[in-house]
Amino acid sequence: MIRALYTAASGMSAQQTNLDTVANNLANSATAGFRQRQVQFEDMIYQNLITPGSAQTQQTLSAGLQVGLGTKTSASEVIMTQGDFNQTNNPLDLAIQGSGFFQVSLPNGTIGYTRAGNFQTNSQGTLETSDGNPIVPAITIPSNASNITISQYGVVTGTLPGQTNAAQLGTMQLATFANPGGLSSIGSNLLQQTAASGNPITDTPGGTSGMGTLQQGYVENSNVDVVAEFVQMILAQRAYESNSKVIHVADDMYSQINGLIR
Amino acid sequence: MDSGLYAAYTGLLARTQALDTAANNLANAGTSGFRAQRDYFSGVLAGGLDQDTETASQVGQSINGFGVLGGNRLDLGQGELQATGNPLDLALEGQGFFAIQTANGTRYTRDGAFSRSSTGVLQTSRGEPVLDANQKSITIPTGTIRVSPDGSVSVSNVDGSIIVGKVGTFDFTDESVLTAEGANRFSANGTKPVAANALVEQGSVEGANEDAVHGTMQLVLVQRQAEMMQKALSVFNNDFDKTASEDLPRVT
Predict the structure, then answer these.
(1) Contact residues, B window 12-51, toward A, CB-based 8 Å cutoff
(2) ipTM
(3) B38: phi then psi, degrees, rounded to nearest 5
(4) Are residues A42 and B12, on separate chains, in Cβ contact within 8 Å?
(5) What kind and span of H or E run contains B166?
(6) Which distant-in-sequence residues (6+ apart) come within 8 Å of A213 by Cβ?
(7) Cross-strand pairs, B4
(8) What confidence score (pLDDT) does residue A114 get?
(9) Of B71, B118, B181, which is closest to A65 when you measure between CB atoms?
(10) A41 contacts in chain B (CB < 8 Å)
(11) Of A1, A123, A231, B92, most Cβ neighbours within 10 A?
(12) Is there a contact between A54 and A60 (Cβ–Cβ < 8 Å)?
């Protein structure tokens, strides 16, 4: 009796986490480079009231009596599918067609990883994110350079005044991970490496490590599928409702038992 | 004394246990690869062993037969597939299980939300390696991953396309050896599995095989049956005993 109450409560709290994740996915559906998360559930431990295969009254039981104690959220998996591309025509906007990440130098000296390619230059001409974190390796674009071109293999070229031929200004590098789902989100479109993700493998775009290629003048949108999130929201709401029904029934049966004594 | 009182009491107790199972099934309606448990009730003849039924009289059988919760078994029906688009999310269509290597030995699961570890090993969300047909883990290099319905994993990158392993699917001739362990896993208690002919579907995860309609119906049934037992109990408890102890002595 008490078990059913706690079991249903575990279902309700797991669905709450599910809804929290759906809400965050929907809130970030317009965030460049955002990767949606999906909650995974697992069942909790079981109480073995009768162990299967035990002997009872001279016959072996083919099935036991196991009562599960509810559910819990086990992980929120990052879904690494490609988001669609949004054409901006800004020469410093880059989208990655493939599995790589841009590398960004953070103020604390560590490297962050992002798919959001809406870059700009600072007062010194260094290419940086909209939060002001320079990209790695550093690329400086002189303010008087024109016709900035970033090839799909990451070569940045520009025409300097008084010159007819384009000069090479630097080469972009991307990083990839054995387990990109193991990266940890730290906000501001940034991800950080963890023991689960493994060490980054860096290479130029289009290289042999399967980084993917760059697309200049485009920004990658989030990969949130709004319709799928709405479906998930309805499912979470209904599952929450059916768990609350269990609490209602358990409460009702409890009061019936109490009602035995008058 | 009134054996019906105890029959109603055991019935009520069995219904409270059945409610626990119904609650667990509903709580896990969102758990990938969850297999619902179905209760069955069984009759117990009080005061004797089951094999004495021939010698017991008809009346004796009917007034001493108690209904208790006999046990529950796993419902191994298919859950619906939910498309996720993740190349390492695998769902099984048909009977069978994935095998995973845990600290306590090989365990079986239908939850195919897998990922690649930092060293490239195919693993569960808890970091346990997924095994192939020969109980070995599978290492997947970087590249575009394709899993065919028979479980073969192929990776294509600039070096070309190679088959790097085959996800094993296992089944049991007698599924009642499986006990749920939590964390979406089942233990076979040492029983050797046989190869399954389930199909592997890439980019999907199998949901629980508990639907809200069945779960809610089970709730209503348990609730109403408990109500009946309670009514029966109160008949014995209040009406009969009251008559015996208060009304009968008043006969003059």
Answers:
(1) 12, 15-17, 19-32, 34, 37, 49-51
(2) 0.73
(3) -115, 125
(4) no
(5) strand B160-166
(6) A96, A97, A98, A152, A153, A205, A206
(7) none
(8) 94
(9) B71
(10) 28, 30-32, 34
(11) B92
(12) yes
